[in-house]
Write a structure and sequence with these properties.
The protein has 531 residues and is α/β, with parallel strands linked by helices. It is 41% helix and 20% strand. The strands form four sheets. It has an eight-stranded parallel beta barrel, surrounded by nine helices. A three-stranded antiparallel beta sheet has the order 11-12-13, with helices on one face.
Length: 531
Amino acid sequence: MKKTLLYDTTLRDGMQGENIFFSPEDKLKIARRLDDVGIHYIEGGWPGANPGAQHFFELVRDIQFKNARIAAFGSTRRQGKTCEQDANLQALINSGAPVITIFGKSWDLHVESIMDNTKEENLAMIQESVAYLLARDLEVLYDAEHFYDGYKANTPYALKTLEAAVEGGTRCLVLCDTNGGSLPCEIDTITRSVVAHFKESGHQDVIFGIHTHNDCAMAVANAVTAVHAGATMVQGTINGYGERCGNADLTAIIPILALKMKRDCMTDENLKKILNLSRFVSETANVPPVNSRPFVGKSAFAHKGGVHVSAIMKNPRAYEHISPSLVGNERRVLVSEQSGKSNITYKAKELGVDLGDDERKKALIVASIKELENDGFEFDAAEGSLKLIMEKLTDQFVPNFELESFRVVVEKDKERPCYSHAMIKIRVGDTTEITSAEGDGPVSALDNSLRKALTSIYPQVNDMHLVDFKVRVIEGSDGTDAKVRVLIESRDTNNIFSTIGVSEDIIEASWQALADSFQYKLSLDNTIKGE
């Protein structure tokens, strides 16, 4: 099994993505998680460019990582300066990082038109910078910026830039598709040619890395193609974060290398941590996870079509290219207007609703869900409400409380903030509870009032908290009379669940979703007690 090294640049290149920011403390937390899953190199930032990166290297300096080596990133020396005079190189050395990744120019367009430099001086900058850093007992990786564009424009010169780095002493050349404009066929041809060139010239010990960007939606494909063509190091970021359209996404590349290409890059145990790593980085960046992200997305193994669900119930391989558990994910079956009886059977079993062998019940549920979705409901992301509907349609629903009435008052006085107050009357068995409460808004007031009414009877509701509240206009042509869909996500100690409500009145829709969240929470507790 061939070895492939993983190089993560989330903490540097990933941070160049729009709306992506990590504090030095955030970067340290992410670095620990990257090390835990077995990443070989973690690029911490450019210490010569900003104080935040330098602070990270100070935080990480005395930490012993299990698997990873920390790398500092920077450029070759400036033109017209010696290495000793170059502040950037000194900052790299002073960072304390055991690995230095420096980049140089491979494309004569950049050398002459952008930097106003000469080709000869550019080669000297590369060779001298690599040699200077290696003389200080550091591991030095060379990133050949814009290499594929440079190779296509002027092949002999692009190769000379790599040769300069090797003359300086590095044994790792990273070929970069910096503009993200190359295609897999080009990556394959050029990478093979470069690998062959250095082998034929006697440099058998040189290894090659690949660094790709996603401007043509080819970053992952290009990285995998380069590995197939001879690269043994892959650079990328978690979730593909990065400048413009992003970098190659390691959460896709790693499973492809390990499971599809049989490369020795990560243990099976660590591969199962990829999903949690993806979500941790997403949460730290305060960027919502992409449901459709391959391997680790919530929808990566979600099945909606009735034919698909029928097939995976017999053999999951029919519509799944790998087992979800290999990457820490799980299979999900969705119920919607496109569902058939297979979806209902699978979902009912998953949610703990007993349908037995009664085909009439299944047909009733399918028909009812299609009708509800036609009215604006969506149950893909509201499994709490779906379970309650299944129970209601099969006479298995036992309400933990019933609404008698509620009243919500929203008052606005001049420059004071809005004031919301809710009064609610519910019945639990033979007991009637009437309570009132304030809130930051009408839904908050309703939540506080309902919670206050239920607490004396069901104290476990205090374990549940609303963590997300979304409102969407279903079809806006009716203006303020249009129907709205409200989705509420709740969390207790052990579960995360979502519920839904639909109405022309946003308060009514909110109440439906809110009431379902409490009903579902209490039904979970009753199930656990029953077991």
